[in-house]
Amino acid sequence: MSDATVETLTGAGRAAIHAVLLSGVDSPSILDQAFRGTGLSPHGTVIGAEGEIIDDVIVIEWPGAEPRFLFTLHGSPLIRDRIIERFTELGASRASSCAHLWSQDGAGQRLKIRDEALQALPHAVSKEACAFLLEQSSELGFSGWFERAASKGVQRDELDQLLRWAPIGIGMLQPARIVLAGPPNAGKSTLFNVLYGEERVLTSQQPGTTRDLIEGEVCWCGFPIQLVDGAGLRSSAAEVEQEGVRRMKRAMEEADLVVYLIPPGGSVALPGHHGTAPERTLVIHSRRDEDPEGVVEGLAVSSVTGEGIVALQQQILHQLYGSDRNLSGRACPFLPAHQEMLVHIGSTLDAKGDLGALLRQYGTSEMGGPR
Ligand SMILES: Nc1nc2c(ncn2[C@@H]2O[C@H](COP(=O)(O)OP(=O)(O)O)[C@@H](O)[C@H]2O)c(=O)[nH]1
Ligand SMILES: [Mg+2]
Description:
Layout: E1 5-8, E2 17-23, H1 27-34, E3 35-37, E4 43-47, E5 53-61, E6 68-74, H2 77-89, E7 93-94, H3 112-120, H4 127-136, H5 142-152, H6 156-173, E8 176-181, H7 188-196, E9 214-220, E10 223-229, H8 239-254, E11 257-262, E12 281-285, H9 309-321, H10 336-350, H11 355-364
Parallel strand pairs: 1-7, 8-10, 8-11, 11-12
Antiparallel strand pairs: 1-2, 2-6, 3-4, 4-5, 5-6, 9-10
Guanosine-5'-diphosphate (GDP) binds next to α7.
């Protein structure tokens, strides 16, 4: 057995690329036997015992105390496993984990929140969310705040500030559910299509056209938003429509925000009337172009002329996350588990409990887990 190890740096499954690390004093000899390239080019092939090509790869030398070579391969798990097998045939042993390679502070401690931010990065849906996560993974972000808190302690006011911003950070990654509600023919499906940006839902003057819930994800100012359209709220209807109405009411109860549409001449339903709390309801006047002079209170929109649509998007973001939504340069939690942790830290602080032990426990546990 030679003094070389091989380990995979990428997760399970198919991907655009996989990465494998070969390291140890004997790794240059394995490289000589298994890699064919030309000159100084990092591009070449990994070959098997019979000279057959296993994959076209790029290999770079990773500076360190001992020789290390990083291979990027095509993203098939079968190719990755075959390359690992080839290196083990040549004497390398499998390393159990690559965690030692990154996410450590000066004292060699794992930086949990940094890991979590980087794990969430491939799932981010906007460039703002990517920038946000990269910042949170750094010393300037929530990861840095946590490390400082673990060594220097926590101030009550900074804890309160972090808790105020938490819904915004979480909202950067997890879509808020916005349900478009109102009576039949209020223009819900037409508005859904305008907000979604394409003709996703059938619309017609026939009341009861939409029955099932229809969902579509959009992204506004970097925030993912899940739009939900469904049946109009009315009582006298066929059985299948009644089921649609039941589903709509359930969706309204679970929504982060209900946008309630009132068509021209429609009565103003009280926010909260259909089981949604007033702070989670936004009442708007729809089909404004049909009654442009009508006196209304609040926002009026038209899906035909586009009047009020941008204002509606802004109003929705405002109601969800407030007016101060720019997280740039701020440490901010980004997982619901972080919020729970901060609440726990707050109650421990108030009870004058052992904060050090609590922070150590969080620092070594898997807070968010794989997403
Ligand atoms: N003039 C005008 N008509 C609209 C507007 N929004 C919807 N409509 C029309 O109103 C009818 C009902 O719309 P729909 O979106 O199906 O209503 P829903 O039952 O609430 O989903 C359709 O004929 C639409 O074309 C609007 O902003 N202006
Ligand atoms: Mg509809």
